Amino acid sequence: MLRVVPFTFNAFGENTYLLIDEATRATALVDPGMYARDEQETLRRYVEDNNLAVKYILLTHAHIDHVLGNAFALRTYPGTPLLLHAQDWPVLRAVGSYAGPYGFAQYEPTEPTGELTPGQTIELGESRLEVRFAPGHAPGHVVLYDQAGGQVIGGDVLFKGSIGRTDLPGGNHQQLIQSIERELLTLPDATVVYPGHGPATTVGAERRSNPFLQ
């Protein structure tokens, strides 16, 4: 069984997740947004206190709020692969050019060590994550689906009562709606969606009441 543990970090209120395979303690760190020292220590202590083994650093996409903790994670868990869809590699590389003006002068650039590809399966102990391609908010955005657990890590695609913004470079509103319809609304209504900001929701709740999907 895969347990999802959320943390909210940085000035953007970004949700960072630990995905923990209960049987083996194998763990994926998704969208490491920890920037301040206390945020970094909160994440490090949780991993240490719960005897977790971080096997992957996975990025749903590479906007600044989702990658501020990349360098810390790579230092803290050396040799752990940092995976990102190839279409968002340029997005990650651009962060250093605007981090300072956004107030993140201590941001440290990082490079992916591998790709996330549509249909790929990430093996995490006895659990499995399916990579689903969901561009529109960012060109290389993916979501991570845990079919056995009935849950999906959705990044900035679908929120409770809202959807991801599409006015950033590489954004496309029509493409985002199509991604939601194809990759999320085809999942069972009970599927829990853990978004990149704000509270969790379900596919069914958003199908019925999200004003952007009516």
The number of domains: 1
**How do the helices and strands follow one another from N- to C-terminus?**
EEEHEHEHEEEEEEEHEEH
Shape: globular
- Helical fraction: 10-25%
CATH class membership: Alpha Beta
The CATH architecture name reads 4-Layer Sandwich
Cofactor: Zn(2+)
Organism: Hymenobacter polaris
Keywords: Hydrolase, Metal-binding, Zinc
Protein name: MBL fold metallo-hydrolase
Give me the secondary-structure topology.
Layout: E1 2-9, E2 14-21, E3 26-30, H1 37-49, E4 53-58, H2 70-76, E5 82-84, H3 89-98, E6 114-115, E7 121-124, E8 127-133, E9 142-146, E10 151-155, E11 158-159, E12 162-163, H4 173-184, E13 192-195, E14 201-202, H5 203-209
Parallel strand pairs: 3-4, 4-5, 5-6, 10-13
Antiparallel strand pairs: 1-2, 2-3, 7-8, 8-9, 9-10, 11-12, 13-14
What report would you give on this structure?
This protein has 214 residues and is an alpha/beta fold. It has a single domain, classed as 4-Layer Sandwich (Metallo-beta-lactamase, Chain A). The protein has 5 helices and 14 strands. The strands form 3 sheets. The chain has a 6-stranded mixed β-sheet, covered by helices on one side. Helix 2 links the parallel strand 4 and strand 5. The model has no long low-confidence stretch (mean pLDDT 98). InterPro entries: MBL_Glyoxalase_II (IPR051453), Metallo-B-lactamas (IPR001279), RibonucZ/Hydroxyglut_hydro (IPR036866).
Using brief descriptors, characterize the structure shown.
5 helices, alpha/beta, Metallo-beta-lactamase, Chain A, 6-stranded mixed beta sheet, 23% helix, 14 strands, 214 residues, 29% strand, globular
